[in-house]
Every structure is written in structure tokens, then in C-alpha cells.
Specification:
- By secondary structure, the protein is α+β, with helices and mostly antiparallel strands.
- It has two domains: about 150 residues, START domain (Alpha-D-Glucose-1,6-Bisphosphate, Chain A, domain 4, 2-Layer Sandwich); about 30 residues.
- Helices cover about 40% and strands about 30% of the residues.
- It is built from six helices and seven strands, in the order βααββββββαααα.
- Strands 1-7-6-5-4-3-2 form a seven-stranded antiparallel beta sheet.
- Strand 6 and strand 7 form a beta hairpin.
- The radius of gyration is 19 Å and the shape is globular.
- The relative contact order is 0.17.
- Keywords: Membrane, Transmembrane, Transmembrane helix.
């Protein structure tokens, strides 16, 4: 899931590579919905997300991976490789969303760059480093697989929009309730056939 060589010149970066079932242009369209992309991260608990202007947003969230509160404006810029998201506040200077095209599917590379502050200040603020990149990559992989399979079905798209607006704990609880309910339905059907 990761390479050993940094995909950007900065030595102070973390990245994850995500295999997707989408073609490059479809993946680019998917990533343009920045709010959806960020809300898929299971380690971010949002309290606010709003659009300030064209490709300019503000969000406030708690990062469950490091316990830090985040409140920052972000700017989205489309690049040849994908997207660059810059942060006004915090330790992270930018997140790069790179799309690597293959003949059948595209690879999504998410890179967090921490190089904007001097090394001494970065060292003092290590507690602010976002540790959710791997979980975000895993969840994106799962989400995109399901999206490719079920996006044609309008109730699925509607459900996923509602699902992503829930807090991560709410998603886990709802998922457990759905699984338990389905198990109970199957058990009732089996029992009624048995009797």
C-alpha cells in the first residue's frame, strides 16, 4: 500500500497508495467532491464543514487518531496529477491527491506534506501529526469498490450520502444494527421453514 520513495521532494511527508476499480477520469470526478472525500476518513469526526468560496472551504473536526481538534480553511487546486489541498492552520501544509492512470483502473495516492514550518517547530509539534492516513486509504478502497459496484442504484447513492454525514461511531453502531437485524431476519425465516 505504500512506496519506500517519497512521491514529493519533501522529506517530511506521509503517503498511502490506494488501488481503485475506477478509471482515472472517473476517480478525478469522484475526488472533486472534497467533502465526501474527507468524510470517508473514519478517524475524522466533523462538527462543521462549509464552502466559503469557489474551491475554498472551512472545516472543524476532531482527529481521533491523535486526539487533536482541527479548525482550518482549505483551498483546493486542480493539478495535472490530481489535486493539491492547502491548509491555512495546523502542522500540515498540504495534502496532494495524485491519480496514476492504468489501462483498467487508477491508483489514488494521498500525500500529507508537513514541510511548511521550520524543522525545530515541526519537532515540537509532533503530537499534531495525522496518523489516520492508512485507515483513510483502507476506507477509500472499500468505499470505491462498493461505489463502482452499486452507484448505478439510486437508493445506494442516497444511503451513502446520509451514511457519510454520520460520525464514525454512529456509522459503526448503524452497521452493527443492520447486520444484527439481517441475522435475525434470516433466523426467523429458517425457523419458520423448520416448523
Amino acid at each position: 500500500m505504500t512506496d519506500l520513495i517519497s512521491p514529493i521532494p519533501s522529506e517530511d511527508a506521509a503517503w498511502v497508495r490506494v488501488a481503485t476499480p475506477l478509471l482515472a477520469e472517473d476517480l478525478r470526478d469522484f475526488c472533486r467532491d472534497l467533502e465526501r472525500l474527507y468524510r470517508i476518513n473514519p478517524m475524522l469526526e466533523f462538527t462543521e464543514w462549509r464552502q466559503i468560496g469557489s474551491n475554498h472551504y472551512f472545516f472543524q473536526a476532531k482527529n481521533l487518531s491523535n486526539g487533536q481538534e482541527i479548525a482550518t480553511e482549505i483551498h483546493l487546486e486542480e493539478t495535472e496529477k490530481g489535486f493539491k489541498i492547502t491548509y491555512n492552520n495546523g502542522l500540515k501544509s498540504a495534502t496532494f491527491i495524485n491519480i496514476e492512470a492504468n489501462s483498467k483502473e487508477a491508483i489514488l495516492v494521498i500525500i500529507d506534506d508537513y514541510s511548511k514550518l521550520p524543522v525545530t517547530e515541526r519537532t515540537q509539534r509532533l503530537a499534531e501529526v495525522d496518523h489516520s492516513l492508512v485507515q483513510w486509504g483502507q476506507e477509500l478502497h472499500r468505499y470505491l469498490r462498493n461505489w463502482q459496484r452499486w452507484a448505478w442504484f439510486p437508493p445506494f447513492r442516497w444511503t451513502m450520502r446520509r451514511w457519510q454525514s454520520m460520525k464514525p461511531m454512529g456509522r459503526r453502531i448503524a452497521y452493527m444494527l443492520i447486520v444484527i437485524t439481517l441475522f435475525e431476519i434470516v433466523a426467523i425465516i429458517v425457523m419458520s421453514l423448520w416448523i
